[in-house]
Each structure stands twice: as structure tokens, then as C-alpha cells.
Amino acid sequence: MRYVIDPVSGEHVADRQRREPSASRLPLLPPGALADEQRAVYEAVTGGPRSGRSPAFRLTDEDGRLLGPFNAMLYSPSVGLPLQDLGAALRFRTAFTKREREIATLVVAAHLRSDFEWYAHERIGLRAGLDQEEIDALREGRAPMLGDVRERVVYEAVRQLAAEQDVSDAVYAEAVATLGRSAVVELVTLVGYYTALAMQLRVFRVGVPEGEPAPEWPQDGDGHA
């Protein structure tokens, strides 16, 4: 075992690389070595609405260390604390149904091919009522067969926003008419939030938790996933 200097607390913390993905750039921080500011982030994530009685995905490893994008939040608590709160607001305090929210999130995860984001929200989406056929269509970049008009509008607005970083006048007008202006603001913010998390996960080389299968992304025209 070797030790590294934690960039926030300045303490030596264990860097047990046998437990980390080989390409991970941010060592997972053990709960016992967290500074007060980091502890506030940790408790907001593990004690907040994400944890619940039976979380859909793994927030921590067997040593209690945060997984996915949450570990990165510990490295900058002044950013991490409001960032995790924004994520909680988008998941639990908007006017969207659970299905609508997960359709939007999975479109972003699939477009950016974010393994952890997909791993987490595929499981949340199934609990929210998405069926496997709908999940597979979203993963493959196809439009799922959605019977609800609000869901179709959410899908198309997010698909266009993720692909083009904008929405057309026609899609915007339909979204406002169907969802309302407040919901459109929330939807654009959701896309921005999960895009930011996907970027962090990519830069810090964070994959799915150990023992979990990575999503099977469709191949592009060059034969690459």
C-alpha cells in the first residue's frame, strides 16, 4: 500500500490501487480521512434522497468510499456540495415524472457514452417504469416507442440539445406548449448537469463499479463502440 497527499485536507491517505480501475485518475477517498468540508459533501450524498432504503445503484464501495462522480465532489467541496444539491434537485424536486426524467438522463448518457452515468440511470430508469425495449432503444440512439406526448417532447428536445447544443424553434415552441417554461428551464439544466458529470467521469477515467458490466454501446461507422 502506498500513500498520497489529499489535495484538500493535506493528509496522507491510502491509495489502494488494487481496488481502483487501472486508469482511474482520482483515488477514492476513505470516509475516515475526510476533512470537515468533505464530510459535509459525503453526508449530503449518502444521507440524502439518493440513498433511500434500497438504492438502485452503488453509491459507495465496500469500504464506504464514494463511487462515480461523487468521489470527485470530495476533492473540491465548495463546488461539490452545491453540485450534488443541484443533482438532487433535478432528480427529486422538478415537475417531471420519474419516467420523463430518466428518459432525458439516459439520452445524455447514451449520447456521451458515459459508462457510469448509464450504469446508474439504467437501473433508476427500470425502477421508474421504463421497460427493457425502451432502455435498449435509448442506449442504441434510437427513438423509443413512447405513447405519452410529454415523454415524446422530452425525448426530442433532449436528443436535439445533446446532439446540437441547441433546440430548433419548432421543438422549443412544442416544449413550452407541452411542458411549460419552468419545465423547459429545468430540462436544459438537467442536460447541462449530466453533461458536466459525464465530462468529469471521462477526464478522471471513472468506469462502472468493480464487478458490474459496462454498457454495450453500438458501433459507429468505423466499427468502434
- Structural Rg: 18 Å
How many DSSP helices?
Answer: 9
Q: Major sheet: order of its strands?
A: 1-2
Return the structural class.
Answer: mainly alpha
Order of helices and strands: EEHHHHHHHHH
DSSP helix fraction: 40-55%
Low-pLDDT segments = 15-22
The largest sheet, given as strand count, sense and whether it forms a barrel, is: 2 strands, antiparallel
Task: Indicate the proportion of strand residues.
Answer: under 5%
Q: How many β strands by DSSP? A: 2
Question: What shape does the CA trace take?
Answer: globular
Oligomer: single chain
Averaging pLDDT over every residue, what do you get?
90
Distance linking N and C termini: 35 Å
Describe, in plain words, how this protein is organized in 3D.
There is one protein chain. The chain is mainly alpha-helical. 54% of the residues lie in helices and 4% in strands. It contains nine helices and two strands; from the N terminus they run ββααααααααα. A two-stranded antiparallel sheet has the order 1-2. Strand 1 and strand 2 (12-15) form a beta hairpin. Helix 4 runs parallel beside helix 9, helix 7 (149-164) packs antiparallel against helix 8 and helix 8 packs across helix 9 (181-203).
Key words describing this protein structure:
9 helices; 2 strands; single chain; 225 residues
